[in-house]
Amino acid sequence: MDWFDSGWGLSLIVFLPLVGALLVGLAPKANEDLVKQVALLTTVVVAVLSVVAAFQFDYASSAELQLGTDLSWIPSIGSNYHIGIDGISLPLLVLSAVVTVLAIIYSWNHWEEPKNPKAFLILILLLETGMNGTFVALDLVLFFIFFELVLLPMYFMIGIWGDKSPYTVKVGRFELETETRLYASIKFFLFTLFGSAFMLLSFLALSFEAGTFDILELIQLGSTGAFTGTFAQLVFAGMFLGFAVKVPMWPLHTWLPDAHTAAPTVGSVLLAAILLKLGSYGFIRIALPILPEQARAWAPVIAVLAAIGIIYGSLACLAQTDMKRLIAFSSVGHMGFVMLGIASLTDVGINAAIIGMVAHGVITGMLFFLAGSMHHRYHTRDMARLGGNMKLMPKMGAILAFIAMASLGLPGLAGFWGEFWSLIGAYNPLNGLNVSLFRGTMVAGAIGTVLTAGYMLWMLQRVNLGEPNAEWEGHDLPDADRFELAAWAPLLVATVAIGVFPRIITEATNGAVVELVAKAFGS
Amino acid sequence: MPFEIDYHALGPEIVLAVTLMAVITVDLLVPRSLKYLTAITAVVGTTAAFVPLITLALHDDPVRSMFDGSYVADEFALVMKALFLAAAYLVILMSFDYIDSERFYQGEYYFLLVASTLGAVVMTSARDLIILFIGLELVSGPLFLLAGWRKGSVKSNEASLKFFLLGVLSAAILLYGMSFLYGLTGSVTFEGIREAAISGDQGPAFTMAILFVMVGFAFKISAVPFHFWAPDTYEGAPTPVTAYLSVSSKAAGFVGLLLVTYLAFPDAANVWGPALWILAALTMTVGNLTALRQTNIVRLLAYSSVAQAGFMLIPFAIAGVSDTPDQLESAFGATVTYIVIYAFMNLGAFAVVIAVSRITRSGLIDSWSGLGARATGLAVLGSIFFLSLAGIPPLAGWFAKFVVFSAAISTLNVWTTSLAAIAAVNAVIAFYYYARVVKAMWFDPAPTTAEREALPIVPRTLQYALAITVAYVLAAGFFPQLSSFFGDASRMIAAGN
Known about the structure:
The structure holds two protein chains of two kinds.
Chain A: H1 2-26, H2 32-56, E1 66-74, E2 79-85, H3 89-107, H4 117-136, H5 140-149, H6 151-161, E3 166-171, E4 174-179, H7 180-210, H8 215-223, H9 229-246, H10 255-262, H11 265-290, H12 292-318, H13 323-343, H14 347-378, H15 389-392, H16 394-407, H17 415-427, H18 435-463, H19 482-500, H20 503-521
Chain B: H1 11-29, H2 36-58, E1 64-66, E2 71-73, H3 75-101, H4 106-125, H5 129-147, H6 154-185, H7 190-199, H8 204-220, H9 229-236, H10 239-264, H11 269-291, H12 297-322, H13 325-360, H14 371-374, H15 376-389, H16 397-408, H17 414-442, H18 460-478, H19 481-491
Antiparallel strand pairs in B: 1-2
Helix pairs in contact in B: 1-2, 1-4, 2-3, 2-4, 3-4, 3-10, 3-13, 3-18, 3-19, 4-5, 4-10, 5-6, 5-10, 6-8, 6-9, 7-10, 8-10, 9-10, 9-12, 10-12, 10-13, 11-12, 11-17, 12-13, 12-16, 12-17, 13-15, 13-16, 13-18, 13-19, 15-17, 15-18
């Protein structure tokens, strides 16, 4: 499979969805089945290719960038089409390719108003190009393009198919009546754009200093201490803004609850499962190895913000009445664990971050699927009105109970490893970091796990247990249908599989992470 | 001195001049029902003007100098000539149906449009103050008339008068500055001014002369605080003329600014650098903040084009405050690249505005509501152009922002980083108002009255204009080399020939 290994495989994984989007665009709108089939076929092929990539991948040298290519792209600025994957990007790439397929299967006959499957599928496919591209890009300009490419499809998804309930924007005495989807979509875009504008400035400054946009060359330079002083500080600050908004880290998270809650089900799933990972991936791929000295300096800040995020996210969850919003806030907490792991700058911590990212993608993606399906039936997400779901929809209730357990970090399920290892990482951070501060964040994180268990169980109690509310009597409440089950089964399997054999992920990541830490921080 | 004329180098100008005569002759000869032939003549003429341009570009030594170095056809001139011709071609395509259906005088319209283009083409080759001034006036003069082409409309009259008064004022200021320059240096050529400025004493009069020239061009590019004419003129003028004003006329102003700053006073960067720094920061910020409040689509684009001019000024400002020859060169290329990309996306945006106003019969942004459901194709095109103007990848506009940022950050000091930060914040603000149009098209429901009406078909010529611009915006987004090629070719001139 020489053609596959020489970059064609990855290029297809990135650009096939774009071709698919064009084909869907050309298909007649009236022929809905054809539109759906083309989209599904494209994503299935991409997912299969990503699995092939996982098999072609040489795990013995997972720190090497593999299956890639390096072609001239914009010679005038010295930017190349340089792609490749290592152990860090591989799991995320597979996750992204698979979740997109599931999103389309789930959508098959769950179209939210105003329907229009054709447009929706084009957006999903464009989104996939952006997501997959970010995970394989090894050139800062290329990375930036893909990183930004996800914004537009998500903006349109939230804006067109999002929550149409009225919303009042209040800033001081200024008031504006609008709709939730409109507010959430523009807020999402402006926050991310703000961060990425400064990220771009950092990238440019870096390239002027180093004379290249190539991430591998920059890492090489960075590990020899080429970037120092105020310059490095400013560059890291810009990158931090770009990535931290995307993660999102407290206090830059406020777009997340709005966007996740307002987005259509599939949009929320893709946002939570993949888009949030672009930020934390950026930290691991770019910020840490290129600017190790600054990473050390910023690590305590990141750790404290992560700890605040964990506690804040959990407390916010305890205050929610809206099920979907609760799940959205839980992402703030879970991504806090990911960032805590990264901040420890140890191989344990960064491994924890990656497995935490994959687990969060699988579990929270699943939770958003469930929230969407339940809203579809009950037409409400108010947990005070729900209840006794276990009796009304036994299958869905059981899945909800199971996945909530996974989300609160029950050992044996996927959510456990990320939290557990990131706490270990924080307990024993990189030599030279302030140990007592990190242990403090570890304690905060540990309290966070308790709070997480608290709000998840409380949600289960309110939604699943007890007697059904009298208002649902006589309502037609069908249990999960086969499209839903087909879309969910792989996620449930993955939850158990990663929980029992975390090696599925660490086999790929560990070599790359150890190398990264050794090169950047010399331990 | 030998006064040989290189007819090959003057090819594009000659073809355009012949086209001018041809248009007015055809207009005299044909009856009213065949007046569209004037437009066809103009289209053929602008296309034909590309031929000498291409042969010049392919020639072994494309730099040709005439009239003692006052008139030069080099890479920069060729690139900008190509841009002006392409813009004129697209504007004529956009005008065709607009002018025809409103029963405007067609022959004169195309005559004036081509005359203005000829002025812009002359400007690109100008290497002395006199030719530059003649070119600039030839650009503006016809536009004073064209802005008032909707004779029955009060707004159009206002547009024309305002444009005329401020245009004349700016010309006077420019000429005043130029006369000082001549008086102080004894030379009208850029080369001569430059040499005299190095050897001679640079007193306050010289500084004042430079600032006067700057202010004169600042009017042309509608930089804040010299922008007040732009929104009213843009709104009142016929839309294709507005498109021309916002692209060619503005680009012509930038050509003048590029030539004088980089060729005539590169050594006085300590004077124009800070001035342009302030101008860039003000223009971006005020343009963007005012655009936020607009309800009329053309006024929105007017303020957007003010803000875009601010972005184009950034490389100048940076080159001025960093003053190493290398910076000057790359800054020059950045501005040219930005102008090329801006020309295509802004013309595309105006083409969509013309097409949509045929449907909505209104200039309000609110009337664009629900366009996605009513005219999906136009809404997709509109979104592409507006989001490209906002600089969102993978549309061409991202690379324009990219080169400007990259010029801004190429030297790191307080001035450059703070301007880069201001630009970054402005890029975010700008997105908000471009997104408002996109939001109206896709997120807002269509007005109930409009649903049943049959939609007018987009005229064929307008379709061509849309196809050309969208093809460029998409292709240059994925392969930015398409645009930076022009910037690179032209930056040679700033290398200090």
